[in-house]
Design goal:
Blueprint (H helix, E strand, L loop, with lengths): L46 H14 L5 H9 L1 H9 L4 H8 L10 H8 L8 H14 L8 E3 L4 E2 H6 L3 E4 L2 E4 L1 H11 L18 H21 L9 H4 L15 E2 L10 E2 L28 E2 L9 E7 L2 E10 L10 E2 H16 L9 E8 L3 E2 L8 E4 L4 H4 L4 H4 L4
Parallel strand pairs: 6-7, 9-11, 10-12, 11-13
Antiparallel strand pairs: 1-2, 3-4, 5-8, 7-8, 8-9
Helix pairs in contact: 1-2, 1-4, 3-5, 6-8, 6-9
Length: 405
């Protein structure tokens, strides 16, 4: 209601709801009405509002008592399905049309299947261009040509009802991405996995898919390189904190190629546990590979993955750590001082080993679904994504990272 604050003082106000998929031409009323017309663009639903809409819808059906609805809303698979709606009310309704009298084991698959009715004919020919623009997160505007196949603009795509814009960027509901990807295999299928009771979604899944997300984004930026001539590290690592970290403003030199659909798994621990270092305990970070994201070998201390890129005038290794806790936990905050300590440990490990050159550049990125408490100044090498910024940092998978499992 804050969007219409003060309008009531001008007289009566009529609301004309225009649903997603209505063409821009059909949505024009200025020529047929003497009333002053104002557009009120509504944002997509955040997770809490999706849950509230789902609750209202399920209660309105009259099929379920209040207690049953509350159980459905707290079900982990149902919450994954809500995350995959992308905040589109129509997809929330699709989710609620599942047969909950049985169980929730296939609710995500149900949503992904039902999204077929959302997809326009002919989109399969245009989806590759639309999807790369979405992943790369390049800035667009309604009149911009989106696909070079006969003046197909961003507005044309908006009129189709499948995409929406947020802060000048294309957004797609993850459930729709799943449908598109099943036919075109543009990204690793783990990014849009439909979990069930026997094939669950866990934070460990998120660790893996976030690495795949970083790979897919970089590959998309390379494909859209004409729009990223002045890219910085912050263009790639979106919505990182602290936002004034100097590394985020350094120029990013995109590699010629980057593998979008998988990561490399280190064959051994690249950060050994041995203290002091033994002869056989050496740093084995593959800093020469600038075409893959790497997942650390099981048991590697401090880091879970890394990627090396050319940033500024130097090669920069981005170490990644993932930390999860139950969203309902009262002690789920992580302190900046603790993350600083982890950086000091990593730095000490790197210095002890001959294979790691002392002047080699690196930063430490902490990805968490927890709140972060800024109890001290952040180390200059530290960047993080927290509960408040996770869905902004990685729109395709961020809301799944907030689901407690």
């Amino acid at each position: 209601m804050s969007l219409i604050s003060g309008w009531h003082r001008a007289g009566r106000v009529f609301f004309v709801p225009i649903t997603t998929g209505t063409s821009e031409t059909d949505a024009k009323f200025s020529g047929i009405s003497s009333y002053k017309v104002r557009d009120v663009p509504l944002p997509v639903l955040n997770f809490e509002h999706r849950a509230q809409l789902a609750k209202n819808y399920l209660l309105a059906t009259g099929k379920f008592e209040q207690d049953k609805v509350e159980m459905i809303l707290q079900d982990s698979l149902f919450r994954v399905a809500l995350a995959d709606t992308g905040g589109l009310p129509g997809l929330v309704v699709y989710t609620c049309q599942y047969d909950f009298d049985k169980d929730t084991c296939s609710v995500v698959q149900h949503l992904h299947h039902e999204t077929a009715s959302y997809i326009q004919k002919g989109w399969d020919k245009r989806m590759e261009s639309i999807f790369s623009a979405y992943l790369a997160r390049r800035k667009v505007f309604p009149s911009m040509e989106l696909v070079k196949d006969g003046n197909y603009t961003v507005q044309d795509a908006l009129d189709g009802g499948t995409i929406f814009l947020k802060e000048g960027e294309i957004r797609l509901a993850p459930a729709l991405v799943s449908k598109f990807n099943a036919e075109n295999s543009m990204i690793n299928s783990l990014l849009v996995k439909a979990p069930s009771k026997t094939d669950k979604w866990t934070w460990r899944n998120f660790e893996s898919v976030h690495l795949l997300y970083l790979a897919a984004v970089l590959a998309a930026m390379i494909k859209e390189k004409e729009h990223f001539q002045g890219a910085t590290l912050g263009t790639y690592l979106r919505n990182m904190k602290p936002s004034d970290n100097a590394y985020l403003f350094k120029p990013l030199h995109l590699p010629l190629n980057f593998t979008a659909t998988h990561y490399k798994i280190d064959p051994a621990q690249c950060i050994p546990r041995a203290i002091p270092a033994s002869v056989s305990s050496v740093i084995d970070v593959d800093v020469m590979d600038r075409e893959h994201v790497h997942q650390s070998h099981t048991g590697t201390p401090i880091i879970d993955g890394y990627v090396t890129l050319d940033v500024g005038y130097e090669r920069l290794t981005i170490f990644l750590q993932y930390k999860h806790s139950d969203p309902e936990s009262s002690s789920s905050k992580v302190r900046v001082s603790h993350m600083n300590q982890e950086i000091e440990k990593l730095g000490a490990s790197l210095k002890r080993h001959e294979k790691w050159e002392s002047d080699r550049q690196w930063i430490f990125v902490w990805i968490t679904n927890r709140e972060v408490e800024s109890d001290t100044l952040a180390n200059e090498r530290l960047l993080w994504v927290d509960k408040d910024s996770l869905s902004l940092h990685c729109p395709l998978i961020g809301n799944r990272g907030l689901v407690g499992l």
